Amino acid sequence: MTLSPEEMKKVYDIQRSMHQKFRHVNSIYGEPLPYLGRLFIVHEGVFWPSKDSEALVKNYAINPGEEVCDVCTGSGVIAVHSAWKGAKKVVALDINPNAIKSTLENSKYHNLGDIIEARQSDVFSALKSEERFEVVTMNPPFTDHKKEVGDYAELTVWDPALHVQKSFFDGLDRVLKHIPTARAYVTQASFGAIDEMVERADKTGFSVQEIGKNVVDDLRTFYAFELRRKK
């Protein structure tokens, strides 16, 4: 889906409004936020549980006993759902220290503290060299941004120079176990860098298949994709 410059401006205005709210989430609510019938704790500057991840959460699969790495974990909603789906271990990563705080509190709130571990990390940087996972998940910021991004709240919606996407594909083959069932699940948006994602996946040896979508309005459709190594 290609948006006109006028439509992209509307999307950017929505994103700008969102990260302004994220800066003050505690002062607005002061209590857990609802998401798909559950409650999640969210600290200031952290992306709210939102419609952007619903297509992934509703459609991805975790086999009992699998180990999962969740990149750009935010408040930890995908990490928590991975544990509910049967993961025996989830390592949740995010560059934002308040995201790590939110994820750890949510793991305890939902009695999953023995399954979920959270680390401050620039994409995969906090992983040990020997760590491998059956599944990697990521709900990243969707769009590039030409201007300097000032804080963590802005990094929740913008990915300058597509740094997160590039780093993800640079490290994905190393982080995924080399077994036939290994896979990644990634979100993207109609206004985001889908073409770039597909191109990077192809160049790094991964196929891409859409597994779900959530149409929010005329400007915003959120997608979930499954990535597997090419045969």
What does this structure look like?
With 231 residues, this protein is of the alpha/beta class. It has a single domain, classed as Rossmann fold (3-Layer(aba) Sandwich), CATH 3.40.50.150. 33% of the residues lie in helices and 23% in strands. The chain has eight helices and nine strands. It has a seven-stranded mixed β-sheet with strand order 5-4-3-6-7-9-8, sandwiched between helices.
Shape: globular
SSE pattern:
HHEEHEHEHEEHHEHEE
> Percent of residues in helical segments?
25-40%
The CATH superfamily label reads: Vaccinia Virus protein VP39
Largest sheet: 7 strands, mixed
Summed up, the domain count is 1
**Strand element count:** 9
Number of helices: 8
CATH architecture: 3-Layer(aba) Sandwich
The CATH first-level class comes to Alpha Beta
Radius of gyration: 16 Å
**Beta-strand level of the residues, as a percent range?**
15-25%
**Spans of 5+ residues with little confidence (pLDDT < 50)?**
none
Arithmetic mean of pLDDT? 88
Structural class: alpha/beta
Enumerate the strands of the largest sheet in spatial order, edge to edge or round the barrel: 5-4-3-6-7-9-8
CATH topology: Rossmann fold
How would you briefly describe this protein structure?
With 231 residues, the protein is α/β, with parallel strands linked by helices. Helices cover 33% and strands 23% of the residues. The model has no long low-confidence stretch (mean pLDDT 88).
